Input
Amino acid sequence: MIRSGVTGQRLAALFLLGCLLFNYPLLSLFTGRGEIFGIPVLYAYVFAAWALFIGLMALAVEKRGD
Amino acid sequence: MLIAEDEPSIVLSLEFLLQGAGYEVTTARDGTAALRMAESTRPDLIVLDIMLPLLDGFEVCRQIRANALLGHTRILMLTARGHQRAVEKSLTLGADAYMTKPFSTRELVLIINELLSSPAA
Amino acid sequence: MLTGATIVLVSFAYVGLLFAIAYYGDKRADAGRSIIANPYIYVLSLAVYCTSWTFYGSVGRAATSGIGFLPIYLGPTLMAALWWYVMLKIIRISKANRITSIADFIASRYGKSQMLGGLVTIILVIGIVPYISLQLKAISTSFSIILKYPEVVMPDKAGAALFLGDNTFYIAMLLAAFTILFGTRHLDATERHEGLVAAIAFESVVKLLAFIAVGLFVTFGMYNGFGDIFTRAAEVPQLYALLMLGDASGSYTTWASFTFLSMMAIMFLPRQFQVTVVENVNERHLNKAIWLFPLYLFAINIFVLPIALGGLMHFQGGSVDADTFVLTLPIAQQQPILALFVFIGGLSAATGMVIVETIALSTMVCNDLIMPVLLRLKALRLNEKIDLSGLFLAIRRGAIVFILVLGYLYFYFAGEAYALVSIGLISFSAVAQFAPAIIGGIFWKSGTRTGAICGLSAGFLVWLYTLLLPSFAKSGWLPITFLSEGIFGLDLLRPQQLFGLSGLDDISHCLFWSMLANIGCYVGISLLQKPSAAEHSQANLFVDALKQSSTSGSRFWRGIASVDDLVALLGRFLGPKRAREAFTLYARSRGEKTIKALVADADLVHYTESLLAGAIGSASARAMVASVVDEEPLGIDEVMTIIDEASQVLAYSRQLEQKSHELEAATNELRDANHRLQELDRLKDDFISTVTHELRTPLTSIRAFSEILSDNPQLDTGQREKFLGIIIKESERLTRLINQVLDLSKIESGNAEWHSSEIDMREVLDDSVTAVSQLFSEQNIALETSAPSVVPPIVADRDRLMQVMLNLLSNAAKFCERQDGRVIVRLTQEQDALRIDVIDNGIGISPGDQEVIFDKFRQVGDTLTQKPMGSGLGLAITREIISHFGGKLWVTSSPGAGSTFSFTLPLRSGSKFQVPSSRSK
Output
């Protein structure tokens, strides 16, 4: 494995970001009523954040060496 | 016979010695004068000091050897420095003999007599 | 129509297909063309994480707690971001040390401890067997349900006959057979199963497609998309509550602890360790897995809530178990093909988990539990048996059957009880107990064996007391008072409100207390202890795994062994043929032709041990190797020394680089110095040569005239006088020269005598001019002086200053114009010095020569052919004297325009001549 220090650091930072995204208190912002395109905000938020997180990880891992 | 030497007292001693041995002697105090004198007087022998003003003894020796008119001229080099390379250089340039200062006067006269009695190369 | 025969046939066909894939995978692996050597297969094999608990259970959980099922998948997603550091390290360590299971990993880290390996295995069997039985239940339930197609009927809760009268038992035995066929065909040194991984990856595709198919069917077939389902659900108050996270702070705690538990589970569940670490072909595959595996989890979860809501709205009144919605919704909608596909998907999820988990567990049970005991039992005389490989396979196969029977029994007795339903998280909590020992083990060198044993035991006991036993109580196997009153009726010891801690759900409660006990014991005891030599060396191998290019344990071994013993030992466990093959391979890699040529050195012993470790675990391998070789135990000091040396190698190489730079610089300096020395040498040669010349010239005259006088007694008096005069003059010249040389060398070496006194420079000037006036008038040179009327006195050696002045004046006279020569001597006072200029109108000196004329014998021109004028020492001596008094001597001149020699003498300031001792002279 090509161990690029930058990639490792980006992933570690992403981990911290993920801990924030999927925990109290950010989660509590979306627990109320309300819908986006008919989808409850909590469900929409969690899956959107999840998709974003995966996308960022893909970016961090695949874009190496710059 | 030509004496090319810049130290006056040595010239004086050489003049005295060679005239006493029956040679006709002219003197030159520097390299260019020595060459000029050699060409004009065509001496049988030159006593040539290496350290001459204006033109050094090696150069004088080389030019004399290059001059066909002076083919018969014997050259006796005098050196004050014990350098082996000076000796070698003078011999390769065509000098017939060399002596290191200070020299023995008797030996000097002997060598000159010998040089002049042997046929030219 | 979906008949029982069709279902059984399709099931068997599917299992047959898996079998074919696995067989093909093994074939390809044997041929060296692996089909699993790509990151996508690797990612799919990791998806063994998603069991029937995911396939059926997520919907069930979502039906009661909304999005509460998600932390189980968010945890691994987060953890994947840290795999770059953590998992890579674990994979490297495992490959370097041929680690084949999680028990092996922990045992190996803490000094190859058999006791730790056994402890880990026991914890895992207790923690994981119920989890396996959960899969059996899923298969059994889904089978019963689909058999009733097109009716939706929940399976009969009344127990069937044990073993032979029960479908589930046959399922368990079928799974055992499949596991044995692919997990233990032979005893391998790496314990890798390529065919099996290929089959697991295929199963992951099937279960994902099946689940998404149901999701699409429910969302877009039964309803008009996500919005429709959610809008309709929102109309039902109980359902709407599922769309929000509970507002009590407790639910956030639950969320966080589930996330943490699943983060640990994704790494330390035996099946995850097996596929992620042991079956890993290339550590580069981990890169893709970091984001592709979370993507898989994302995909398999997106329809969970819609299916749950759809099921809840479709089957109102709770007649149908939410855990079965995935299957019962297609049945209720009369979709036989979809139902069958879902059944196969669920079968895939369950079988994949059971097979991999069982293989991993059986390896541990065999290597870390049974073999160490058997090998110790002297009565069995196992030490004398030639070939143990058959026995090993038998034990493995027995262990597989044993584990599946255990799982079946647990299923049979737990049935629908609470103990089975919540077992997923209970297993996760058990596995999380390994986190301190493993994560601490790979990042912290000071963790010790005792610390790990105590931490694990403490955490496990707390888990047992606060989670497993309560689940038994809730299932009615223990008096329920155990929960409400605690053990011995002590309130503080109520298992789910330990020490009065309340307000947490049971999982978070257990997690808190078990981690507190676990980490507390591990860290505390580790810090109180000094690790043994074996622990220390292993700690370094593990913690520094990424730093060392090749991890070699052989550095830590010393002793005497014989090749025959090692071959025989390996043969006993792998079979003689495979053992010889392995050694031949090793011999070739060492450039030897035969095993006979090998030397039983530390490397060979290490090689043997690592091969054995692949087969029987590192702890047993260590014990076995120790039994056949004569080992010299390494003391802790020696191990420390070796480790220090290793860590110093890096520092050394850095130092070495620096040293080589320094060396290069030194070489350059030396070269320069050599150049200078050569230059000095040349100067010395020139000096000697010049001195020789200078001595020979007067000697020549003296000798010549002496001989003339001696040979010619008849000379007249006039000539006689003249020749004698020359001899005297040349002798004087010789004497002067010798004096000057001596003088210069004395000054240069600092041995000269200085007689300093206060002097008036004007007087010195006048005296010197008087001294040379005769010479100047003889040569017709005009000499002028100019000086202020008064100058301050200076302290110097009067005779030396006279010498300087005479030198400069005679020098000037020498180079003056022959006719109309003129020399001016000028004394002036500067700010804190006196300055004397001696100006002539001679030929001048070219700029290039102006500096060299002060060198000894350095007169202008080539020393070999040009005759120096005078001794050539005068200016050198003059400069030495002036600099001795703290002054400066220099010349300004241009060819044809005469020269000016100038020097200064300081008026005060600490010059050497003011030193009292020199004054006393």
About this structure: DSSP finds two helices and two strands in chain A.
